[in-house]
Amino acid sequence: MWQSTRSDWFPAVNQFAQSTPALHAPMRLYAEYAVALFAAVLLVAWLWARRDRNPRSMASALWAPAGALLTHRCLGAATAVAAVAAVVMAFARVYVGVHFPLDVIVGLLLDAAVTCSGYLAVRPLLIRVAAGSSRTPPRPLLTTAERSLSR
User: Fold this and answer.
1) Which residue stretches of 96-134 are H helix?
2) Is 1's pLDDT higher than 70?
3) pTM over 0.85
């Protein structure tokens, strides 16, 4: 089953790539440099969590930007943008011939499972670390609050 899926999807994507030469340059650039986009998402998640002054938000930002986006009330659209950007990145990697489709799908599913289960397992510790660190010299990195975090 998996072999037929793998052998059916890869030629379909290759044929699509051959029939869309206008996408070659943008897809290649995105496949190579979208890491900068994800670095920006990490930075924005950290800034939002810092401004939020909540140890739970900082714990999310320390674990993964997706966690910070999911826990912030106003960022549903940003979460959707991050998810779409990840899927487009996965497709771009297949489009330029760097990965097979099934490899990318399994990678996305495995990443999601590890991120979610790991976050649930480590979240209580991260919250305690973020709250405790708010009373130490690196406090400005964790919050904009003047006093220690009490939530």
Assistant:
1) 101-133
2) no
3) no
